[in-house]
Design a protein that fits this description.
It is a single chain. The protein is built from ten helices and 15 strands. It is α/β, with parallel strands linked by helices. The protein has a domain of about 170 residues: P-loop containing nucleotide triphosphate hydrolases (Rossmann fold). The strands form three sheets. Strands 2-1-4-5-6-7 form a six-stranded antiparallel β-sheet, covered by helices on one side. β10 and β11 form a beta hairpin. The chain is globular and about 65 Å long.
Length: about 375
Amino acid sequence: MHLASLSLQNFRNYSSLSLEFPPSGAALVGENGAGKTNLLEAIYLLCTGRSQRAASRKTMIRRGSDTACTQGEFRSAGRVPTSVQFGFSSDKKLSVKVNQQTAGSVSDWFGQHRVVPFGPPDLQLVQGPPVERRRFMNMLLSQVNGGYLSDLILYRKALAQRNALLSQGGTDSEIETYEDRMAEHGARLTAGRRALFRSITGWFVEFYRQTRSASDTGSASIRLTPSIGAEEDNEDACRKVLAEALRGRRRKDRMLGFSTAGPHRDDFLCAVEQGRAASYASQGQCRTLAICLRLCSLRFLQHHGAKQGFLVLVDDAFCELDADRVSRIYPMIKGTGQLFITSTSPDLPHANGLARMAVAGGAVRAV
């Protein structure tokens, strides 16, 4: 599977644009602010319905316009091409079409075209708030497991209802209804996250060993830190523990007006030998740890059936790394899927074989 074409209307700094891509991908070269990242954002949007920068849809609409549209055609050997169109407006109206047929929701096609982004914001996975790390887990697991995405949506709905009742003085019986739903769906979310970390923990350690700087002889580790139920090994036991914890915290949560425990409070910890990475690791170490998380994403998708069927978006992700480390990282990425790279420099020795495209002034041309 690969993205064969991309069309934009009033998206970011592009009024109108149509591009074609070969199966191997493309290197997008241009000055800072030219719109390279916007192209990767449009591709990510077609795959997930979201911005890899966590931007709102309204901010992706070109200034002076009320609507924006992205459209892409995905092709795969031996299969009929798939056309995806994603349109949205400043008043939050959304239109999703797959092969010209209106889709019920973004989740209807989520995960069909898998994607892994690399970029400067990845540093937030190590140094940022827990919400960034939960987003990492949710996006990765949702791409390989439609059931996980369904549970995530239903858990969030139950959580919103419980929070509303907590703040509005709902009865215990009303609140308990949503606690049961949170426990049911939350237990499956926890099970999925545990399975993810059983897979990636060893990879993470090895990727760090391979990509750390020559002066860094230490090791790194990663560990899931659930809000509750960390000791439980099966889904049913986790459901019971979660339900009991919600009931036990109900009085406190009433006073606060929100739910203080559950998968929506989960986190994971990246560490170096000295301790928690956010506190003890250097900026270079933190960036390396973030890259290792994305490399784990690639490996996880490969182990769950994606093989060559996903897209890799590299947005100036390695600009702060020395040439030696870059030369070790790129071989881990090349060949894993269709590759899109952005750079301010046309000198891209590791992008040999990729089509080159110059980005400037809201236009893109082949070079």
